[in-house]
Amino acid sequence: MPEKTKKSPGPAKILDCRGLYCPEPVYRTSVEISDVAVGDILEVLADDPASESDITSWAKHTGHELLSVEKREGGFRFLIRRTA
Description:
By secondary structure, this protein is an alpha+beta fold. It contains 2 helices and 4 strands.
């Protein structure tokens, strides 16, 4: 029997916060996470330098799972799994 490979699920929704500054990226992330199903992933793009610490802290305080923070040219890419 062939082995089934698990595919890494892509984001259910992409939120583009580039060009927005504190507190807007974390506020919009907080609002948009409710639009994805529990267990699904929200991808957030931001270029505000404060967004790295703001979104990391927000995820920790709300209990959502921050899967990754990727520094990119001109900003950040966050993958957040909704937990509740």
